[in-house]
Design a protein that fits this description.
29% of the residues lie in helices and 27% in strands. The protein is α+β, with helices and mostly antiparallel strands. Bound molecules: pyridoxal-5'-phosphate (PLP).
């Protein structure tokens, strides 16, 4: 089976994976998720992802009905049925089946879904020539509304932003927060490189605490590249030497154009390239020695 899915422990192919239409995850978007990828079939930064899943669930008051080890065993069982050189792993945890009620007590049993499918390769050209991103008009969710710290199954904010980017033929949508600061993209975090240092918006600007974002800070430390969390503005794009995005499936992606703005030299810069190389060294080590990663 190319795609394998577990719904509450029942493993099937993608076509036979079924969740009730009365699930609050479907009816209200009430649930959280994680996306991991593998290197050498080993889920990368597993503990970090599951810690974030617990944090997201906690922000919804959603119980997490497994230990990290139990979930990993389930993931491996689903992986055993899936095809692919490397795997994309999506874990969804929803409030469960209810009766159109917002009362959590009416949904006592959460739904747990694990989807494993072949990882879609990102084109080499994205890393070699860089990508184009659009700064979109859709505002990132206000943290006092649906907090972007929650990796929520309710992805309407992200979907609307990406639709705008697609209309502009871009591969990602860069968003501002309600204060007009640059925060993150709809599927990735965003970094600016200037004078050899990397800068990304702070978590309290209202963004997802990306696992790759945190890992890039660690890599920067190893490489002696200064890294800062600070408020970013649109004007920072005019003075940036380089920009890049980070996410789990695409790692570190150079951004050389933001709409009609050319960033720096218009090609992936040296800091981004060093970080990509360091990331890949770690990923390769993970696939050989998962316990040491
Ligand atoms: N920001 C948003 C809105 C995302 O959806 C994602 C990933 O999907 C990220 C950032 C990057 O997070 P991570 O590095 O954990 O994949």
């Amino acid at each position: 089976m190319a795609v394998a899915v577990s719904v509450n422990g029942r493993i099937t192919d993608g076509d036979h994976a079924v969740v009730s239409v009365f699930d609050n995850g479907f009816v209200f978007g009430e649930g959280v998720y994680e996306v991991l990828r593998t290197y050498g079939h080993q889920p990368f930064l597993y503990d970090e992802h599951i810690e974030r899943l617990r944090h997201s669930a906690g922000m919804l008051g959603l119980p997490v009905p497994f230990t990290n080890d139990e979930l990993l065993a389930q993931i491996r069982a689903v992986q055993a049925h899936a095809e692919g050189k490397e795997h994309y792993i999506r874990i969804l945890l929803t409030r469960g089946v209810g009766e159109f009620s917002y009362d959590p007590a009416s949904c006592p049993t959460p739904t747990v879904v694990i989807i494993v499918k072949p990882l879609a390769e990102t084109p080499d050209s994205w890393y070699e020539a860089g990508t184009r991103v659009s700064l979109v008009s859709v505002t990132r969710n206000h943290p006092g509304s649906v907090n972007p710290r929650i990796k929520s199954n309710n992805l309407l904010n992200n979907a609307l932003a990406m639709q705008e980017a697609i209309r502009k033929s871009s591969v990602e949508a860069l968003m501002k927060n309600y204060r007009g600061e640059l925060v993150e993209c709809c599927q990735s975090n965003f970094f600016v490189v200037r004078d050899g240092a990397i800068h990304t918006a702070p978590l309290d600007a209202g963004l997802l605490a990306g696992i790759t974002r945190a890992f890039v800070h660690t890599l920067a430390g190893e490489l002696g590249i200064p890294s800062y969390e600070r408020t970013l503005y649109e004007a920072d794009l005019d003075t940036a030497d380089e920009t890049f995005t980070t996410n789990t499936t695409r790692e570190i992606v150079p951004v050389v154009r933001i709409d009609d703005r050319v960033i720096g030299s218009g090609t992936p810069g040296p800091v981004t390239r060093r970080l990509i190389a360091a990331f890949r060294r770690h990923a390769a080590a993970t696939s050989l020695h998962p316990a040491q990663a």
